[in-house]
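Issue: copy button drops trailing tokens. Both records pasted manually instead:
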Amino acid sequence: MFVVTGASGKLGQFVVEGLLKKVPAEQVAVAVRNPDKAKAWAARGVQVRKVDYDRPETLSGAFGKGDTVLLISANEVGKRFPQHSAVIEAAKKAGVKLLAYTSILFADKSGLSLAGEHKATEEAIRASGIPYVFLRNGWYVENYTEHIAPALQYGVVQGSAKDGRVATATRQEYADAAVAVLTGTGHENQVYELAGDASFSLPEYVAELSRQSGKPVKYVDLPVAEFSAALQGVGVPKPFADTLADADAGLSRGELNDTSRTLSRLIGRPTAPFGNAIGAALKQG
């Protein structure tokens, strides 16, 4: 059985659909907090298991002996390690065959504040003795393209990335890599640094956005504290604003860039240029 936790999230949905193209629905299970979001999968034969990371007792029936599990990292920054620990403990008790985890690029040496919980989770998985795969995902290109509308409205993209380069990929591409690992062989106890084939700087991103949209957009680089304050000014809670600004600072140091092309090797095709994602987002309006 293939079990995907956090399956109703943006990445998880792509993973489940990818699995359904490779294996019978009866071999796929989703572990979700809200089963209503998985009704369509249930109708197709997918097992739906209700779990709550904050209630470890709900995880007792989430996994079975010999399962292949994908732990998609939780989205509550600051609460993720105890949540992940509960999943790891349940997986160990169940005797799962493989535990794959969506981590962050260079988790073991990254200076990003986001990396701390990922590093701790990786260490807990290693200590559990479960055969593992760490899918160290880089930045999603959607982190930028989902915010195109305000960029075009105000003609400005702010950040603290300077001329640092980021190698993004789409959620679909990261999901395809997860599916390849889950359904493949020889991945036990491997660590994969995953990122797009090509990188870009935020000034380059803004220039391409301006070119494709036909509207003037400029990149304004700010000190980290000022960028966080700007994010808070548009409603981003301070802890998350600080995290985003810190990530941009890490980007400026090259911590979100990778040239290994491991992602494209796993999925069997080159990753799409970032300009493609801009074009797709502009078409969607």
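Record 2 (pasted manually too):
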Amino acid sequence: MEHAKPPTGTQAIGRALAVLKLLAAQAGELGTSRIAEHLGLSSGTAHRIVRALVAEGLVAHNPRTDAYYLGTGTILLGQAAQRGFGLDKALPVLEQINAETQESVNLVVREGGESVVMLRVQSTLPLRFEQHPGARFPLYTTASGKAILAYSPDAETYLAGLPERLPKITNRTLSSPAKLAAQLEEIRERGYSIDEEENVAGVRCVGAPILDADRCAQAALVIQVPAVRMPARRVRELGARTVTAAKEIAQFVPVDRMMSR
């Protein structure tokens, strides 16, 4: 049961952020009763929070449905964050690779034990894998996650914290930390990572780390291709292209800001 006392400042901020994250995850509208249900709040508390967020322009109200959705203020904040991370400068690089290859291209950052898609240019070919910014996956299952781990100072700590048998996402997901460690060594020798349908069946990916001045990574560039369009020769070609593009992006993306939580 929710505590009767008014929430502290820290608690109120946490609840407001939880509402924003919920609306972002839903990518639609929610009424206060649904917000309260999702977050374990009373209806009155949920209503007060959303009204405060509406007043700041971070949430908007649809009077026809009496529901709430992310407001224009979040767009402005997102655009400012993109500029701060240099993503506005990185986007033309992704668009160029997309134009050259006709394949989907992602810029991904690490958050704890997950890789999170920050920027995406989607393939326009009929056969493609749909994805969106904000999508997140375990590091060990993706080309992006493995590229980042290969150049992460805490890679050994991460490996030591994994279970002996890794949870399977597909039947080709790596089965053990030892196999992952071996792949990380290969990535350091080769310069790019490969996802052999380990995260999504039928999709192969290549990725390269975006390195800071100390050759550490918190971000990666990835090209994502249906397996039927990705023979071994093309893996090598696109792998080399990701390395070149990642080096270009590293010149203007402040990688040191992309710190793991």
